[in-house]
Amino acid sequence: MSRPFPDTHDAHGDPALHPWLLPAKAFVGVWRGRGRGAYPTLTEGFAYEQEISVSHDGRPFLHYEANAWLIDEDGAPLRPSGRETGWIRVAPDGYLEALLSHPTGISEIYTGKITGAVIEMTTTEVIRTPLAKEVTSGRRRYTLDGGFLSYEHETAAVGQPLAQHLSARLGQVKPGA
Ligand code: HEM
Which atom of ligand 1 is nearest to the CA of 46? Predict the structure, then answer.
């Protein structure tokens, strides 16, 4: 039985996007594309594909979900990789706060700002379970440009200061595609 109030990836349909989320309107949808990763502790970089979903149910928050898998040089999937899920809240002036949770025992709280087609956000707190790797902070910048969502993600972890971990460019997946 389907739920009576499912999330939608449509920022223009029913339910209407809550007015507080208007600064984030263009980010709502399903995005899919490729990225590259590295970290000072890793001997080599890696390539990945990722799908990011940003949806809403008419209330003043967005549901964010991202799934990534490593790929070889031909783009063939190798194995599942980073996943995260969480919630994004936005104020009418573009102030943004996000709670993102990872299966690796890490929860990040970000605050930031949406300025036109750019989201910039930095962690105020990272909470870890006893088994988690030592991740202490993060910084992300998402940019919309010509129907593509690109982002850069830096993280401070395992004794390293903030350093680039991920960089990707995703295209919008049209409904029904
Ligand atoms: C697209 C999402 C992501 C992908 C594809 C990805 C991929 C990887 C890969 C391939 C590694 C090397 C170890 C391994 O093979 O598992 C790694 C390590 C690591 N990643 Fe990510 N990652 C992602 C997101 C994240 C996020 C969101 C964080 C932090 C919150 C993070 C923190 C780390 C840390 C701390 C390490 C270990 C570094 C070390 O111990 O040397 N990753 N990641």
Answer: 10
